[in-house]
TrEMBL record, chain B:
Keywords per UniProt: Protein transport, Transport
SUPFAM superfamilies on file: PX domain (SSF64268)
Protein name as annotated: Sorting nexin 5
A Gene Ontology BP annotation from the UniProt entry: retrograde transport, endosome to Golgi
Keyword Protein transport assigned: yes
Record organism: Hippocampus comes
Record family assignment: Belongs to the sorting nexin family.
Domain (PX): residue spans on this chain: 1-155
């Protein structure tokens, strides 16, 4: 867990989480001593929407890159595109870097930028990835049943290991229950989602699963349920701490550090599924919008389409893996039954050597059954569960796009309100009513401020969404790739053990006479 | 498949094989090819077309032949069963609309390969049947066997006549009662006592094992139809893994499941022999009783004595021949099991090593990318 060397620790999260993103660029990462603002505009990843001469002069590269973003980011989705990522610092190559972003670099979990808009260049982000891994490690372990009967619950140990100074210690652990995780999600989503962040989703609630556990934690289906949940909670937390903004959220810190957390209430209302339902409803509302947004750059439209396609792809794949798991379990059962039968046959056999060989065969088949069982687990935990995670996360990503739309709507509505107020003012001027005129002028000022505010909000949300989506894609690619390698390695191990079993059996078979 | 019954087709005086076969709808037409130096045959080399029913006819006539009561008649080949691949083909046709052309073609090819595998299996099992006959010192000389090999006309007429003559009499008669009969008689000969116990027990176990092996193989084969179409470059790897898995499943079937199936049927044939001998013993015991009665009544003594002698002779002949047959059966079974188990283990190792290479290659590729 090497931390970056030339980096400032993050300041304690201040209240300036809204608004002035652009003004906070001065501090933080200036590895190259460049003016961050300038280098920022050269990075295609976080290019500001090209609108009305806001770009610094002479920056043709960013202009073109803004429009070509839609094309380049296609390659982000291919897990194994061939290009290598380079840390070439020149601005012109930063475009190349974006298009070949499927390297296996670990993503920085922690950027030293302020909690407000981190708009440093993508290039610099990638440099940091090169130098450092997660500065926060979390693990969820030791599920224990607490209490008895229907009020029982499972408590998990959440352990953290970190070098970040904002935490009181370097390593610590607390006990948390499922509703605590849901509570954290609820707090985060209320706060951050309005800014266009992709909030990681906790696992689903399960009345059936939990009831079984309450009754007793010993039977295999309960064990599997608890393990599934534990793994899902761990992945959830790992995603949360990997997010540069969320790790700095005081609620996250409290969740990780505080001994006794107040019981989260109202988790009925907002589980992951509940929130997704909300997102979907909002999408429908957005779709019914009559004024279609006029996108000056197609990045958002294209990206949203990609996200939707990918969600479909993953769903299909998940279905395939699911049936693979079931088949393997069936094969497992059939092999076990066969092994027993073969053992009986071996006992019946009157030729000694053949009898021994048949018994050995029965044992080999028994071991095969175990192998199948383990492979099915691995299919499931490594593959299917992670796919399911990403299917839900992609839903959350779609939600961000909708938030941006709503921000745009708000802005448009404010503009039309402002227009109305101006019309009122004009009428009043003509009608010559000075006292009402004053009020009208005040209202105009008020709405002008609102328009400016909402416009800024919209811009900012757009930037956040862009950045978030790119970060998410990188993380997803990396995560899926890691999982696939893990999965293949487990298959490899399986096959190697299989070889050993059969190689041990072979001399027995040859000894038959 | 030939390895289920080793040491066949070595005697150059009578060589039989099935070089090809045609599949027309539900019927398979086998080409039976014979090469012989025996003068009993009209020509040194003959090829005739035969259907599955012809094989059954031949088997049944052998079973019904009194002279062969003391022999283990090789089990009849099972009827060609294309139901499974045909059903899958049907499903594939229904699902055609939902697949891409490429997927459809690929699946179709795989199903055609499965069809071909079933086809090959049925050819071989019919071939083994004939080769067991040709390598048997007594059965190879059977007249009907010769007719089967060289009669260049359609056998269906003969088949019908045979059915009318015997009406499947012997076969239908006491399949259920034979267990009772065999286990019921008081055995004087240790050899047969042991054989009887062994075969009855072994049969039930091997029948069970065969069923379980079939179920296991069927599930294993389902992995074949798992197209992993997704994930671009990975789909190549999964394709290859799937193909290997398919080969593992079919090798397992050939070496293990088919082996068990065959010997289950062979043991049934051995049990039939025991049954016939048991019947002969019962006849002998009955003839003894009849003789005693005749002596008591002082009536028809010579006939009774002769009858008793005949029964005894028959029984002795069956016992003597039966002992030989059962002993060679033991040896044959052990050799066949050995060969198949060794081959199966070697194939499993080979396929697994294949998989290991594939997986290692892909992991390397992914890690370095």
């Amino acid at each position: 867990m090497a931390s970056g060397t030339s980096r400032n620790p993050p300041p304690f999260p201040t209240n300036d989480e809204t608004g002035e993103g652009l003004s906070n660029l001065a501090d933080g990462d200036s590895d190259e001593g460049e003016d961050i603002f300038v280098s920022n505009s050269m990075s295609p990843g976080v290019c500001q929407p090209v609108r009305g001469g806001e770009l610094p002069a002479g920056d043709a590269s960013s202009h073109t890159s803004a429009q070509s973003n839609g094309v380049h980011s296609d390659e982000d989705n291919d897990l194994f595109s061939d290009a290598q990522l380079s840390t070439d610092k020149s601005g012109s190559s930063s475009q190349k870097e974006l298009s070949s972003s499927s390297s296996s670099r670990p993503i920085s979990s922690f950027s030293p930028r302020p909690a407000a808009m981190p708009t440093t260049s993508l290039e610099q982000l990638e440099e940091e990835e090169d130098k450092d891994t997660f500065d926060v490690d979390v693990a969820v372990t030791n599920p224990e049943k607490v209490g008895d009967g229907m009020n029982a619950y499972v408590a998990y140990r959440v352990s953290t290991r970190t070098s970040l100074p904002m935490f009181k210690n370097r390593t610590f652990s607390v006990r948390r229950r499922f509703s605590d995780f849901l509570g954290l999600y609820e707090k985060l989503s209320v706060k951050q989602s309005l800014h266009g962040c992709i909030i990681p989703l906790p696992p689903e609630k399960s009345v059936v699963g939990m009831t079984k556990v309450k009754v007793g934690m010993d039977d295999p289906s309960s064990v599997e349920f608890v393990e599934r949940r534990r793994a899902a909670l761990e992945r959830y937390l790992q995603r949360v701490v990997a997010h540069p903004l969320l790790i700095q959220d005081p609620d996250v810190r409290e969740f990780l550090e505080k001994e006794d957390l107040p019981r989260a209430s109202n988790t009925q209302a907002l589980s992951g599924a509940g929130f997704l339902k909300m997102i979907n409803k909002a999408s429908e509302a957005v779709n019914k919008m009559t004024i279609k947004m006029n996108e000056s750059d197609t990045w958002f439209e294209d990206k949203l389409q990609e996200v939707e396609n990918e969600e479909q792809q993953l769903r299909k794949l998940h279905a395939v893996v699911d049936s693979l798991v079931n088949h393997r379990k069936e094969l497992c059962g059939n092999t076990a039954v066969f092994a027993k039968s073969m053992a009986m046959l071996g006992n019946s056999e009157d030729n000694t050597a053949l009898s021994r060989a048949l018994s050995q065969l029965a044992e080999v088949e028994d071991k095969m059954e175990q192998l199948h069982q383990e492979q099915a687990s691995s299919d499931f935990f490594i593959f299917a569960e992670v796919l399911a995670d990403y299917i839900r996360l992609l839903g959350a990503v779609r939600g961000c796009f909708d938030q941006r739309m709503r921000a745009w709507q708000r802005w448009q509505e404010a503009q039309s309100s402002l227009q109305k107020k101006r019309e009122v003012e004009a009428k009043l001027l003509w009608a010559n009513k000075p006292d009402k005129l004053q009020q009208a002028k005040e209202e105009i000022t008020e709405w002008e401020a609102k328009v400016t505010q909402y416009e800024r909000d919209f811009d900012r949300i757009g930037m956040t969404v862009r950045k978030e989506v790119l970060r998410f894609e990188k993380e997803k690619t990396k995560d899926l790739k890691t999982q696939i390698i893990k999965y293949l390695e487990s298959m490899l191990q399986s096959q190697q053990r299989l070889i050993k079993f059969w190689e041990a059996f072979l001399p027995e078979a040859k000894a038959i006479a | 498949m030939r390895s289920v019954s080793v040491d066949l087709n070595h005697d150059a005086s009578l060589l039989i094989d099935i070089p090809d076969a045609l599949c027309e709808r539900d019927k398979v037409k086998f080409t039976v090819h014979t090469k012989t130096t025996l003068t009993a045959f009209q020509k040194p080399e003959i090829s005739v077309p035969r259907q599955h029913e012809d094989f059954i006819w031949l088997h049944d006539t052998l079973v019904e032949t009194e002279d062969y009561a003391g022999l283990i008649i090789p089990p009849a080949p099972p009827k060609p069963d294309f139901e499974s691949p045909r059903e899958k083909m049907h499903k594939l046709g229904e699902g055609e609309a939902t697949m891409t052309k490429e997927e459809y073609t690929k699946m179709k090819q795989e199903l055609e390969a499965e069809y071909l595998a079933v086809f090959k299996k049925t050819v071989q099992v019919h071939e083994v049947f004939l080769q067991r006959l040709s390598s048997h010192p007594i059965l190879s000389k059977d007249r009907n066997f010769q007719i089967f090999l060289e009669y260049d006309q359609d056998l269906s007429v003969r088949r019908k006549n045979a059915k009318e003559m015997f009406g499947g009499f012997f076969k239908n008669m006491v399949k259920s009662a034979d267990e009772v009969l065999i286990s019921g008689i008081k055995e004087v000969d240790d050899f047969f006592e042991q054989e009887k116990t062994f075969l009855l027990d072994y049969y039930s176990k091997i029948k069970d094992s065969t069923a379980k092996a079939e179920k296991m193989t069927r599930t294993h084969k389902m992995f074949i139809l798992f197209p992993f179409r997704h994930m671009e470059k990975l789909s190549d790897l999964f394709e290859k893994l799937r193909k290997v898995e398919g080969r593992v499943a079919s090798d397992q079937e050939l070496k293990l499941t088919e082996l068990l199936r065959y010997y289950m049927r062979d043991i049934q044939a051995a049990k039939d022999l025991l049954y016939r001998r048991a019947r002969a013993l019962v006849d002998y015991e009955n003839s003894n009783k009849a003789l005693d009665k005749a002596r008591l009544k002082s009536k028809d003594i010579p006939q009774a004595e002769e009858h008793q002698q005949q029964c005894l002779q028959k029984f002795d002949k069956l016992s003597e021949s039966g002992k030989k047959e059962l002993t060679s059966f033991k040896g044959r079974r052990v050799v066949a099991f050995r060969k198949n188990l060794v081959e199966m283990a070697e194939l499993e190792i080979k396929h697994a090593k294949n998989n290991v290479a594939l997986l290692q290659g892909c992991i390397e590729l992914l890690k370095n990318n």
